[in-house]
Specification:
The chain contains seven helices and nine strands. It is an alpha/beta fold. It has one domain: SPOUT methyltransferase, trefoil knot domain (Alpha/beta knot). Strands 5-7-4-6-1-2-3-8-9 form a nine-stranded mixed beta sheet, sandwiched between helices. A hairpin with a 3-residue loop joins strand 8 and strand 9. It starts with 8 loop residues before the first helix and ends with a strand. The relative contact order is 0.18.
Length: 223
Amino acid sequence: MDKTLLIQEKRLLRIKECLQKRQPDLRLYLENVQNHHNVSAIIRTADAVGILHIYYSLQKNLPVNDAITCGAHKWVILEKVEDQADFLKKMKSQGFQIVATALTPDAIDFRDIDYTRPLVIVMGNELEGISEELKNKADIICKIPMHGMVQSLNVSVATALILYEAQRQREQKGFYSKKRISSELEAELIKKWGIYEVLKKKSRGRLKGSCLCDLGKVCFKKE
């Protein structure tokens, strides 16, 4: 074991096992999703299905509730989007399709999407949904069929349904049975996550709300 990590071998193996199942070409973008319960629940679901990259567009810091995420926010890459147009252009140039949810006439059933392709799944604001910019620039608009009086689900529930459909399709194609991230990124995350474990223990609980930001640093927020 790399002595610079200073974590137990069992913990290191667990981190490696997690990274083996991460899906680098399935990403999530939260456009102005603001409620901390929703954000935290979404992050927890994203971690569960193997998502590594989560983008968000809030002007303030992403509101994360550690009690809801159960620490899941520490094991994903959270990246703030400063310019949405540039972000969408960049993702498309890298071969990603943009999939957004909205109640539009051309929206298709979310289960009819091929989630084994490189995708960025966009979830919109709790009240307003996705912006007009995203409606115009998305490659696919999807919806979750509703047969009741209410037309939409809570954003965290809707995200969970979509992500688990993606997980189902990818599992059928064997995407979780082989490593899909680069060895360089794997090594970088093992080092950062290993350092986090040590600092957390040495702080004796005084450091809260830790997260990994843009692979650049480990950042902490004191109580």
